[in-house]
Design brief:
Layout (H helix, E strand, L loop, with lengths): L4 E3 L2 E3 L5 E3 L9 H18 L3 E3 L8 H14 L4 E4 L1 H6 L4 H16 L3 E4 L5 H10 L3 E2 L10 H9 L14
Parallel strand pairs: 3-4, 5-6, 6-7
Antiparallel strand pairs: 1-2
């Protein structure tokens, strides 16, 4: 696949990425093996290695993907879909997280759900979410946690949000 393929006079450069998962080392059933082969394939694609054997020590996404899937299952009975902060906070530096955030926003809209992004801690993240079509966000960039009496006052007279945490004893 290193040589360009000529199709109707047009030279095309093709690449292939292959992920390998071996039974029983990388999974006990077809679903688990496919998931791990998928992780390895994306690793091969990211590193331009051509192929990669699944390595659990570098699989940073499996627990996070399970959390996302759990959230999706819960969302079908609700009117909103929340994107976990672990994806939102890293979307500027981690291409996989950016894809997950974008895909989740599209999925939520396609299901008729309101999409809420958690963990918005920078202006850049808020702007990127807006471009992607996410209209609701939560996070320290927007407002720090506040006690109920401050929230009630802020809701009556909206203004700049308090940027420091007020601790309540009791």
């Amino acid at each position: 696949m290193r040589e360009p393929l000529t199709l109707e006079g047009i030279a095309l450069d093709l690449d292939a990425s292959i992920g390998i998962a071996i039974y029983p080392d990388h999974g006990n059933d077809a679903a688990e093996l496919l998931q791990h082969a998928d992780v390895a394939m994306y690793g091969a694609k990211h590193t331009h290695a051509g192929f990669l054997v699944y390595d659990p020590s570098v699989d940073q996404h499996s627990p996070r993907r399970l959390a996302l899937l759990g959230g999706l299952r819960q969302a079908l009975g609700r009117d909103e879909l929340k994107i976990d902060r672990s994806f939102v906070m890293q979307m500027a530096t981690n291409p996989s997280d950016a894809v997950i955030v974008h895909s989740t926003i599209d999925l939520g809209h396609n299901l008729g759900l309101r999409v809420v992004a958690e963990g918005v801690e920078t202006q850049a993240a808020q702007e990127r979410l807006t471009v992607l079509g996410c209209g609701t966000a939560q996070g320290y960039h927007l407002c720090r946690p506040m006690p109920p009496e401050n929230l009630e006052r802020w809701l009556r007279h909206p203004g700049p949000c308090q940027r420091t945490i007020t601790r309540r004893d009791g």
